[in-house]
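Two proteins, back to back. First:
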Amino acid sequence: MVESGPVVGGGDARGSGSATFVLDADCGELVETVTIRRSRFVATLAPVASEQELAALLDAVRDPAANHACWGAVIGNGPQQIARCSDDGEPSGTSGPPILAALTSRAVVNAAIVVVRYFGGIKLGAGGLVRAYGGAAASVLDRAPLRRAEPVSLIRLRLPVGDAGRVEKALYAAGEVGAVDYGPAYAEYTVQVSGDGEAAFVDRLMSLTSGAAEIVEVAHRLA
């Protein structure tokens, strides 16, 4: 396996400068097949927001009948960004790095590309493999609906149960409510709000609960 550390993405015709892109929320998985000298390269592009989601994607895409399942992924942004790749048995540097480069050259984050190769009996050589894997990754990215990534805050908060019913409507109005956990004394919510709206959201929450709300955890990411 070949793995890389943090990578700074560039841009392409769809963006420039420090702009970063993510897959559209309704994208799901995209698949593109490229045949080169009788070998089939099946590229799957999917959104991934964590290493757990990446592992699940690899498990789903791997095919025992295939020779290799090489991949590249970029998760997160800033100092904590994860940018990794794997050659999965191909000659070192010929498959994972060009797949990863397809993502970073277009500044795409929170996404992974897995390219499964079905060997056709003709060896491609190191240069041929780089072009084949990189080309397959670029082909599936060409079809991808990308949009500019925006900073968001994922806020996990705790409310006294007595305040939950009164405050819940305001939570749903302020952002995207995810996990909700009701206990005997407290209710916990996970709410995603825009990065610019985090301070106002917290101020509003404290005002509605007379300071009884507790911010348990805040995570910042791109979405």
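And the second protein:
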Amino acid sequence: MPYLTSSATGSASTDVRLRFGVPGFAHPLVARAEWGELTRPGTPLHWVVLNVADGPGVRPDPHCLEAAGRLRNTGVRVLGHLDIAHGVRAFAEVVSDAQRYLDWYQVDGFLLDRCPGERASLPDIRRAVTTLRTLRDGAHVVLGHGIHPYPGYAENADQLVTFSGPWSDYRWSQVAEWTADYPPDRFCHFVHGVPRAHLDEALRVARWQGAATIYFTDRTDRDGLSDPWENMPGYWDDIVSRIGTGVSE
């Protein structure tokens, strides 16, 4: 069973209120129903990632602009998707993508996908985050490591994605002890391939590990051949009702 221990807290807490961080649906022309569903009143959304074409694209897309505008009009943060490519992508390219997101879609912040997690890369990521916050005052920055990174990253972003992967790994995962020194709203978990019958168990894992922002889906990556986040899970209404009522274990 996943565990969390800390000299600061002594034990894990399951009294964590969860909200969704949506990693990014397919283009609104392809996933029209999904984007529309996100604007339903009462949906516990923290933020939604806009990924036009593996980034902002080469020109403004009116369909994406409309989808992002509807979300922002309901008070939901929209984050631009920036691919860091594990730290090898040129700094200037990342900044250029960020500026286009701001100019074209007025995003509220950014998800830095494929973010490196080792200590040696921390200065470069710190530089990128600092620059993004000069471009957009109050930008909400999420570092998409997908694993537990070197602890210093937690001081340089609003949130860290500390798990991204399949349910078969998540249900037996173990959380890094240092995360207990931070509140749950600093951490995000993205889990695909979660069967409906295991939703309660998955929600318990998230709360036990201290992650307040989640996205669970029954879609799979088909061994790396597809994007499990492109479409809404088949049990969307079910998981919305469970989170929206604040069910805890």
